[in-house]
Amino acid sequence: MTRIGxxxxxxxxxxxxxxxxxxxxxxxxxxxxxxxxxxxxxxxIDTADSYSAWVPGHTGGESERIIGEWLxxxxxxxxxxxxxxxxxxxxxxxxxxxxxxxxxxxxxxxxVESIDLYYAHFDDAETxxxxxxAAFGQLVSDGLVRYTAVSNYSADRIREWVxxxxxxxxxxxVAVQPHYNLVHRETENDIIPVAEEFHxxxxxxxxxxxGFLTGKYRSTDAEADGHSSPRAAAAATYxxxxxxxxxxxxxxxGAAHDVPLASVALAWLRAKPAVVAPIASASTLAQxxxxxxxxxxxxxxDEVAELDDVSEWTPADM
Length: 318
Prior knowledge:
Helix content: 40-55%
Mean pLDDT: 94
Low-confidence stretches: none
CATH class of the domain at 2-177: Alpha Beta
Strand content: 5-15%
C-alpha cells in the first residue's frame, strides 16, 4: 500500500478507472472487473460524476451508480473511492452552490457517507478560485468529503489554490491528477515539481495512452489494423516509428519480468517521483491481471533509465 500525499488514505498502487463502467463494460462486466481487482488487492477506484454522459441516452453518473451498487452488494470496507466535479451536464463548473449540489448527488449515487477523494475535474475560469477553494473546504468541514484534489490544473493554478486554502484556513488538496504516460511526459516539466513542492500525490490518467502502451496498436491507421474501439483512432496516432521503438524496449523489459506491456507502462509510472497510483481501466475481466501486475512489478533503475531514454522524444510532441 502507498499513501496519497499528506492524507491518511493508504491505497493499492494502482487506481481502477471507472470511466468504462456503464459504457464499454455493462453492469455485470463492471461487477466482475471490480471483484477481480479487489480480490487482487485493489482498493482504489477512480471515477467522475460525468461518466458516461457522452454515451447516447446517458445522463452522467452511470459509473458512480454502478460502483455504489457494487459497494453495497459486496459490503467491502477499506475501499477508497475518488470522484470528480465540474463536467456533469447538470452540474457544470465550480461555483460554490454547484460544487455542493454535485457532491450531494455523487454521495447519493455512490451510497457512501463521505467521498474519500474529491477532485475539481477541470479548472473553471468563470468562477473565482477563492469561491471554489472555499466550497471544497466547506465540504470537508461538513464531512461530505474527506480530502480534496485537483485534476487538469496548471502548475500556477495549483499553487494559487494552495495559497488560497492556506489564507482561508481550509483543507488543502492532497493529490493532483494529470495526463502522464511514456508517450506524454510534459507533466514532468511543471506538474511533478509542484506536486513535490506541496507534497501532492500524483495519480496519472491515460496511464496506458488510451491503449497504445498495451501494444495492440502497431499502425497509425487503427481501422485498417483491425481496431474500431472508441479510443482506437486516438491511440493509433502514437504508432509512429519512435512510438514503436518505445514498445520494443517495453517488450524486452516485459519479457524479463514475465509481464505484459501494460504492466511495464504502469510500473514505469510508479517509479517516477511523487506518483502514488496510475489510473488504468479494464473493459473486460481478461485485462485485469495485467493491471494488477503493473502494481506489483518493480523495474530496476537501469530499466527505468532505458525507458526514460527511449521515450525522451514522445509522439505527443508532434
